[in-house]
Amino acid sequence: MKKITLLQGLAAALLMLVMHSAAFAHSAMSSSVPGNGQTVSTPEMLMLHFNGNVRLVRLTVTGDSGVVDVGFVPVAEANMMFHVPMPPLVAGAYRVNWTVIGEDGHSVSEDFRFTVDPNAPAAVMTEHGAGGGDHVH
User: Exposed/middle/buried for 112, CB within 10 Å: 0-12, 13-18, 19+?
Assistant: First the structure.
């Protein structure tokens, strides 16, 4: 019978840990326009960029006056980037809430916020870091 050395055992354990972590990696938004926390003039387009191919199944934009109709229709085809035309927005705070289904079959929901100020610069692509919004599985 062959004995397993300590080094072989550690290598096997490390490999299992890496495989376990990869299996539970979930989809995340990597950047957006407008970006989380940005103050911008009214954006003509909402752009969402994810770290892998996802299906965007829910998207709501809520302002001080309630839900903004962006005409969202759930997407059947998986992509990394989504563009949603925006209606003119009045000055104020907005929250974007989205839900995607990743390649692993898990749904992930998050949100981010931005503010519209007619005197602010145009929106630019901004990376979302860890903890950039409220994350729900």
Answer: buried
